Amino acid sequence: DIESDEMSFLCVCLLLQVMEFYCESCETAMCLECTEGEHREHVTVPLRDVVEQHKAALKTQLDAIHSRLPQLTAAIDLVTEISRQLNERKNEAVTEISNTFEELERALHQRKTALITDLENICSAKQKVLQAQLSSLLQGKEHIQSSCSFTEQALSHGSATEVLLVQKQMSERVIALARHDFPERPHQNAHLDCQVETEGLRRSIQNLGVLLTTGAVAHTSVATGEGLRHAATGQHHTITVTTKDKDGELVRTGNAVLKAEIASVDGNRAAETEISDNKNGTYEVGYTLRTEGEYTFSLLLYGQPIRGSPFRLRAVKPSDVPQSPDDVKRRVKSPSGTGGHIRQKAVRRPSSMYSTTKKKENPIEDELIYRVGSRGREKGEFTNLQGISASSNGRVVVADSNNQCIQIFSNDGQFKMRFGVRGRSPGQLQRPTGVTVDMNGDIVVADYDNRWVSIFSSDGKFKNKIGAGRLMGPKGVAVDKNGHIITVDNKACCVFIFQSNGKLVTKFGGRGTSDRQFAGPHFVAVNNKNEIVVTDFHNHSVKVYSADGEFLFKFGSHGEGNGQFNAPTGVAVDANGNIIVADWGNSRIQVFDSTGSFLSYINTSADPLYGPQGLALTSDGHVAVADSGNHCFKVYRYLQ
Ligand SMILES: *[C@@H]1O[C@H](CO)[C@@H](O)[C@H](O)[C@H]1NC(C)=O
Ligand SMILES: *[C@@H]1O[C@H](CO)[C@@H](O)[C@H](O)[C@H]1NC(C)=O
Ligand SMILES: *[C@@H]1O[C@H](CO)[C@@H](O)[C@H](O)[C@H]1NC(C)=O
Q: Membrane spanning segments where (predicted)?
C-alpha cells in the first residue's frame, strides 16, 4: 500500500544516500538516485535551494501569525476583565439584595411593633372609661344593697324606738338612692380590630426586584440616522442605536449601558448628548452642535465601540444642509412575493431631515433609505429594470430593460435624464440588461438582444459598440482599473474582457459545473485588487477570478440559509472588499467579506424585494438595487 511504500522508499534513501534533491510535485526530499526513479517525470531541484526558499516562506507565515499575538492577548485581557467585572457586579448585587431585604424586614418589624403599641393604647384608653363606669355602678349597687339590708333588719327585729329612729334617717337615704342616676348605659364599645391589607403588598413582594441585564454586545449593535454623519448647527438631531447580541439578533429589552460622546478634532467634548432608552432594545441619542466643523461621534456600549463607531460627523450651517433623500422614503408594504406594483413616484418634499422635531424613524424596521419608481413607461418609471450602476460623481444609472432605455438619477433619487432609441442598429437599444460607468464617466451598456456592448457619453451620445459578432447574450458588465470592459455572456456562459476600443483581451468560461465554467453567469463586479467577481445564477454561487481569468475561489450553495443562494444576480464590491450580492430567488441582499464569509443581510423586510437584479454602490456609500419584480430601484444603508 502507498503509505508503506513511501516509508520503505524514505528508509532506503535515508540509510544509503545523502538527501540532496527535492521533488516539487511530491513535496519531498530525495537522493540523486531517486530523481531518476519514480520522480523521473517530476521537476526536481537541489535541496538547499528549496530549503532557503521554504525557510523564507515559513518565516513570512510565522511573522504573519506572530503579528496576531498582541491582538489575541488584548482580546484575552478584555474578555477576562469582563468576566471579572461580571462576578464583581454579581457580588455587589447579592449584597444589595441582602441589604434591601434586611431593611425591609426591619421596616416590617417596626410596623408590627407600632401597630401593637397603638392597639394597646387604644384598648387601655377604652378600658379606663369602662372601668370607671363599672366602679361607679358597683358602688351604687353596694349602697343600695347595704341600705336595704340595714332597713330590713330594723323593720323585722328592731323595737318601736329603733324603727322610729331608723325611719327618719333611712327614708332620706332610700329616697336619694331611688332617685340617683347611675351610668347604666355603656360608655365605650368593644370595637377594636386590625385589618392588614396584604394582597397588594404580597403581589408587590412577589415582583419585588428586577434583574437588569441584556445580551447586547457592541460589535453587532448598530446606529442609524443622518445625524451620525451630518448635522446642522443649532439644530437638535437624534440618531437611533439598535442593540444586538453576539449572533446579530435584536435585543428586545432596555437598560443597556450606552455612552455617547461628540468630540472636536482636538479631542475636547463638543456637545452634551442625551440618551433615552426606549426599553425595547433601541435608544435615541440626541445632541445639538453650536459650531461648524468636523467631529467624532463615539457610541460605546458597555465601554466598547458599536459597529462603525467612532463616526465622522460634519456640522454645517443650516443653510448649507443638502436635501435629504429620506424624504422620498415610503413605508408602503408591497404584497410580499406577489410582485404587486406600487404606484408611487419619487415625489420630493421640502427637507425635514434637520427639523427640530424628533425624527420618527424606526431603524430596525428596515434599512431602506428610499425607493424610486413604479411600473410604467414615463420618466422615472420602469418596466423590468435589470442593471444598475453608480458614477463617482453622484449619479445612479439604470438599465430599464423592457422600456429599452437608460435612466439617470441623482444619488438622492431625483430623475435627471434618460436616453435610448429602441432598435437593432448601432447606438440603439434592444434589451439593455447590464450597465456600468467607466472612469471617464462614459456609460457602458450590455445589450442582451443586440448581442453587443454599447458605449455612450455621460449625456447619452452613442460613441462605440464592442463585442459584436462575438457575444451571444451579454447580461452584466463592469470596467476594471485598467479600463478593460468585462462582460458576462449569459448565453455562452463566458466572461469576455475587452479593451475599451473593442479589442478582445481574453475570455474564459464555458457551460459546466467546474470552477472555470458557469451554469448561468449573470452579473460581474471588480474589486480593488482588479479581481473579477461573477454571480453564477444556476450554480447558486459567486466565483472570483484574477484579472486574467485564473480561478481564485468561490462561495455559496443552493439554499435559504446564511450565505446560501437561490440564484444570485447583482453583485458589487465596496471599498473594503466586502462583496454584496442580490439573491434573486430568496429576494434578499447578502453581504460577505472579501473572502466570501457571510457577514449580514441588508434588512429589506418592511418593503420586501421581489426578484432583485442588478446591484451597485452609490458614491455616498449606499447600496442601490434594481428591484425588478416591483419595477423600482431601492437604496439601502448597510453594515452600519
Ligand atoms: C421601540 O420603542 C420606540 C419608542 O417607543 C418605538 O418608536 C419603536 O417603534 C419601538 N421599536 C420596536 C421594535 O418595538
Ligand atoms: C428586519 O426588521 C424587522 C422589523 O421590521 C425585524 O422583525 C427583523 O427581525 C429584521 N431582520 C433582521 C435580519 O434583522
Ligand atoms: C456548482 O458547481 C460545483 C463545482 O463548481 C458543482 O460541484 C455543483 O454540482 C454545481 N451545482 C449546481 C447546482 O450546478
A: none
